[in-house]
Amino acid sequence: MNFNELKKTDLNPFFEPKSIAVIGSFREGGFGGYVVVKSLMEAGFDGKIFPVNPGYQEVLKLKVYPSLSDIAEQVDLALVMINARNVVRIIEECGRNHIGSVVVVADGFAEKDEEGARLQRELVEVARRCDIRIIGPNTAGIVNSVNGLNPCPYDAGYYGFKKGPVSICSQTGMINPQAYAYPDLGFGINKICDLGNKCDVNECDMLEYFENDDSTGVISMYLESISDGTRFLEIARRVSKKKPVLALKVGTTKAGAKASASHTGSLAVDDAVFGAACSQAGLLRIDKFSELFEMPKVFAGQPLPLGNRVGVVSFTGGVGVLAVDEGARHGLVLAEFSAENKKVFKEISEDLGTNPVDLGPLIPTVKDFSVFYSRILKAVLADENVDSLFNVVWADALGKNTSAYLEAYEELKEYARKPVVTWVYGPSSAITSEMAKKIEDFGFPVFREPETCIKAIGLLTRYANGKR
Amino acid sequence: MNFNELKKTDLNPFFEPKSIAVIGSFREGGFGGYVVVKSLMEAGFDGKIFPVNPGYQEVLKLKVYPSLSDIAEQVDLALVMINARNVVRIIEECGRNHIGSVVVVADGFAEKDEEGARLQRELVEVARRCDIRIIGPNTAGIVNSVNGLNPCPYDAGYYGFKKGPVSICSQTGMINPQAYAYPDLGFGINKICDLGNKCDVNECDMLEYFENDDSTGVISMYLESISDGTRFLEIARRVSKKKPVLALKVGTTKAGAKASASHTGSLAVDDAVFGAACSQAGLLRIDKFSELFEMPKVFAGQPLPLGNRVGVVSFTGGVGVLAVDEGARHGLVLAEFSAENKKVFKEISEDLGTNPVDLGPLIPTVKDFSVFYSRILKAVLADENVDSLFNVVWADALGKNTSAYLEAYEELKEYARKPVVTWVYGPSSAITSEMAKKIEDFGFPVFREPETCIKAIGLLTRYANGKR
Q1: How many C-beta neighbours within 10 Å does residue A417 have?
Q2: Which among B41, B166, B230, B410 has most CB atoms closer than 10 A?
Q3: A404 shares a domain with A281
Q4: Are B444 and B421 in contact (CB under 8 A)?
């Protein structure tokens, strides 16, 4: 019998606890209970923190309690990072103290050996008996940027997050703060959850939780195994109509499936089967680890396109062909500008009127580039045959167009009712990064590669279609 | 009849001219003859520079000649950046002055309109009559880092290059200095050639030129159309046995092919057909624009693997599954460590001995990480069942492993006889970039994404197989 069939407790206490007990070592260093307390404080956690360890009196000016039963107040969530052998005992203590939600960071369970697997079974049994829900074991934990809940066990060098609608869930700690430079992302994060060995809470639970979590607007999932394929697809089908669900599945090759410790009842892992399942359930399939973090930004702020016709503005013909190619792979077509709008283009320049718009040859003939550029972007976006815009920006070494670009994006912010995705290229990484950052500050996503821009528009368009 | 069938002049004067005439405007600014002269001087061009324009006396302290016939010395190469309408006349002048090689930067030819196409036909006719070879028109030109030949018509903010074995050729100016941050690449560049409209010199000619160019060790090509498919594959088959040839083909979808102005005799553009042709000819197919620049670095310095068995060292199990998955897509398998070597692993730690090597759970038990880490890398590389190493480095916020990593790579430099490809991840882009740079300074390629690392090993392995 599945643990989940027995209990469907709300996961709210995991992400919105009023109080958290941290059970671990509080020795200063880069890993452990000390870092968890430091991280919670630095992130401005809005609840109470109760460090627990009989060997300490104080950590970071907080009182350390000898045991959970010494805490007089209600504890909503416990975070356990002690030796695997002692975890079961602590879970029992949680039960006695009416703590219903526990994150088991500790490793050395089923992922390690037979003895660990036995400990994990015991852990599940005790938790079930005590009416406790568990995330983990063997997890780097959870984050909620909204209330400053960042109990990261590793010192990531940063603690708070830019708040945003994107929630990420995985079976690897590679999504947790110590492994990814969230401050360098152009958008905000909502919640993070590493499911670890998922002895209890699994991807189905998290997907349902995110479904009902109002502050989560975009869901991004890294899936290794799927505990209950039928249930997962059923939930996914429902959630995908409300919020975009991006899914990266590893272990889709025969060899990969073998490498991933596959569980009973796993969803068939074949690449094509997973692809078909994604389509049916409305999941938006992503293929690369970096897309897990970067792809959500196109859903965080851009309006949904009404169709699949893309307008392209660029400084080079080469990118045009590349965009068309990549677009065809993602169900997009090159927009054909409307007859009426062609007149508008011709007024701007005799050589304009076809898509992609190649600005390169025109520049030498232009007097006021700023006015010229802004007019072109407006004309493309205003075209009734254009559903989205792929804008390619050349950040040249002398920065001669910089102010024109920024003015245009500032205006776009006001009048763009269609999604705009940007690629910036140029002879200096420092200059292109700075330009990308400025464009993202206006609320428009920028991707590092032209293909990713097109794919982002493709996924956004697919999501919009699914919703209609 | 094909121009190429008539003339097979050596392309040497394009890349190793003793003297170059620059025909254009010398007004100070970000584009034009002025920039070309500045760029050649800054890059330390080792030949003579002859600016030509009747309207100027001097540019950057160089005498400007009224016309080509006023130059008393032999001119090997001319670079033409004047109005399309005047180009034919200049080509005739080149002919009268025995200049056999001309780069026509000027645009406004076949890529523009019917009148331009007519001008281009005239250009070809005159060039043929005068025994002149042409690169372009509508090109951002060429580069040879070895002799400082960088006549880039756009001010890229940098002029010289780190010298290396990689030569790049395309039909778009997106590979030229003004469009790509070559100084930020971890390896050196040899030659760059934008073929533009390729009215004469085409991808076949360039591939043959690179074949016989001793200083080119790796060839990377961006192909839009292929002028003569049969000839191209014939040359590719031959060159691929000597040097790796990476090929990115755009216009492989129906829509993309339509967008690309396809020429008579073009190679069939279908994706699968191109893939099959690549395999047969030994071409190493790449799929993304960024790979054109980044993928060559695995061929520039790494030894060739003897087989397809990959050892993986990582700080997280998640990357292992991902690596196996991606490996399967590129013909790689996870190495099974030899029985003998397993003993060596067990001596280092009881928990070692299986591939991928997951260091994460071991770290807390390790006293001297530096010694431990170096021993593990050596043991993996020494294993007779391992042909290449994918090493995943966690650059943590506190930099506590930094010196251990760097010492290990310094040692690797001495004893690694198998390719090592690295991915660096961590909580700060600044820290991961710095670590990546340091590792590349030891001569080991680092890629921004784990999938690219695996693909790089896959392509290297395929090339090694093809050579055997």
Answers
A1: 8
A2: B166
A3: no
A4: yes
Q: Do B156 and A324 touch (CB under 8 A)?
A: no
Span A103-117, pLDDT tens digits: 999 999 998 899 999
A291, A448 contact by CB (below 8 A): no
Buried b (16+ CB within 10 A) or exposed e, A312-345: bbbbbbbbbbbbbbbbbbbebebbebeeebbebb
ipTM of the complex: 0.94
Which residue, of B298, B330, B346, is where some domain finishes?
A: B298
B317 vs A250: CB contact, 8 Å cut-off? no
Domain final residue, candidates A269, A297, A325? A297
Residues 356-395 of B with CB under 8 A from A: 356, 360-361, 364, 394
Q: B178 and B223: one domain? A: yes
Q: Does B54 touch chain A (CB under 8 A)?
A: no
**Whole-structure pTM value:** 0.94
Query: Could you read off the pLDDT of B42-68 as tens digits, one per residue?
Result: 999 999 999 999 999 999 999 999 999
Closest CA to A392 of A441, A459, A322: A322
In angstroms, what separates the C-alpha of B468 from chain A's closest C-alpha? Answer: 26
> Angle between the B229-239 and B271-281 helix axes, to the nearest 10 degrees?
40
CA distance A371 to B113: 26
Helix (H) or strand (E) holding A127, with range, is helix A114-129
A29 touching B (Cβ < 8 Å): no
- CA proximity to B336, closest of B277, B403, B379, B383: B383
In a domain, B342, yes or no: yes
DSSP string spanning B430-458? HHHHHHHHHHHHTT--EESSHHHHHHHHH
Task: Identify all chain A residues contacting B250, using CB atoms and an 8 Å cutoff.
Answer: 318, 321-322, 325
Identify whether residues B269 and B337 lie together within a single domain. no
Structural domain count of chain B = 2
| pLDDT tens per residue, range B347-380 | 998 888 899 999 988 887 888 999 999 999 999 9
Assess contact for B310 and B327: CB atoms under 8 A.
Answer: yes
User: Do B268 and A329 form a contact (C-beta atoms < 8 A)?
Assistant: no
- Cα separation of B405 and B434, whole Å? 12
Which SS3 state, helix, strand or coil, does residue A255 take? helix
What domain range includes position B286? 3-298
User: What's B393's domain CATH number?
Assistant: 3.40.50.261
Q: Are A161 and A150 in contact (CB under 8 A)?
A: yes
Q: Measured between alpha carbons, how far is A413 from A420 in angstroms, rounded to an integer?
A: 10
With contact defined as beta carbons under 8 Å apart, do A298 and B155 qualify? Answer: no
How confident is the model over A252-267, as a mean pLDDT?
Answer: 61
Backbone phi, then psi, for A135, in 5-degree steps? Answer: -105, 125
Indicate if A201 and A326 belong to the same structural domain: no
Query: Read out DSSP for B204-251?
Result: HHHHHHHHH-TT--EEEEEES--S-HHHHHHHHHHHTTTS-EEEEE--
